[in-house]
Amino acid sequence: MERERRIFVTRPIAQPALRRLAQAARVELWDDDLPPAHDELLRALARADAVLSTVSDRLDAGTIAALPHLVAISNLAVGVDNIDLEAATRAGIAVGHTPGVLTETTADLAFALMMAVARRVVEADQFVKAGKWRTWTPRLMLGRDVWGATLGIIGWGAIGQAVARRAAGFGMRVLYVSRKTAEEIATGPSAPQRVDLARLLAESDFISLHVPLTEATRHMIGAPELAAMKQTAIIVNTARGSVIDHAALTAALQKGRIAGAGLDVTETEPISHDDVLLKLPCVVITPHIGSASVATRLRMAELAVDNLLDVFAGRIPRCCANPNVKLRSLQTS
Ligand code: DGY
User: To which CATH superfamily is domain 6-99+294-312 assigned?
Assistant: First the structure.
């Protein structure tokens, strides 16, 4: 008889999904919102056949090499930049992830950040709560129009396109850059316009980032790109912090080279409490909550569990970041 599968779940996830996993395997849950320390993670993984991980668990080549029995990593995220995908593939470990189910929720947050910065929503809220609201005045909290503005979307995947759909409702002109080939992209008279990066930077009032973090996209927005933007431009990042060069962004905002930033992700997470960005009123920062709605986190957890169960049934996970992996065998004793 096959022995029971052991899963380490690195953070509390939605209960229904956790219960379903517990019916199929022996679950060890790290029941804390703060991640296990790396040595703690290694100890727990040494006892496990698979792990349900999050973006704040680093599963690098060294960690993977130390885990000869691990067959699957199921990341509760679409992004897998916390995992050394090549090392996992070489080792025969399937890496599951959760694309699709979080698309619209993440696009909502990108739009919320854009609007919050443009219309100074957070600053205005703090102003009222600090008892500073004395009267209506024509000069109070003047922001920038979102409606009718030009939105530049960098990365034309599911989330970028979901942001573009929202922009249509605001009468925005949408430009985008994409690595896809021209044939893969739908066009039409009112369709968003594909342009090169230089044109997108020069013409956009808002720029929203939707690329995965890879060696090619790390710091793709640095000093030269920030200098090429309009001085009135607002940049929004719900992708990964390191797509923007943090130091260059800070300098550009301090010098008024661009007008503002809405960041759900930062180069170091959490951002240091002393970081200058936290002192700038033209910056709104949220703590990596792009997919954080009750319904979406449940869908993500269910999909992460499905991905694990697929591997235990001898299949490649239904949403797999390394679909060409040759699965290593499950331990039998
Ligand atoms: C992702 O899915 O990659 C997010 O960053 C976590 O929700």
Answer: NAD(P)-binding Rossmann-like Domain (3.40.50.720)
Is residue 273 part of the annotated active site? The answer reads: no
Contact 106, 86 (CB under 8 A): no
DSSP string across 219-254: T-B-HHHHHTS-TT-EEEE-S-GGGB-HHHHHHHHH
Query: Domain 103-285 carries which CATH code?
Result: 3.40.50.720
The two most distant CA atoms of the chain are separated, in Å, by: 77
Residue 213 Cβ contacting ligand 1 at under 6 Å: no
Please tell me if the domain spanning 6-99+294-312 has the same topology as the one spanning 103-285: yes
pTM > 0.85: yes
Give the tens place of pLDDT for each residue, 226-274.
Answer: 999 999 999 999 999 999 999 999 999 999 999 999 999 999 999 999 9
DSSP state for residue 34 in the 8-state scheme:
S
Note if 38 is an active site residue. no
CB of residue 291 inside a 6 A radius of ligand 1: yes
Which one, of 36, 25, 29, lies nearest residue 15 by Cα?
A: 29
Domain boundaries, the chain: 6-99+294-312, 103-285
* Residue nearest atom 4 in ligand 1 by C-alpha distance: 77
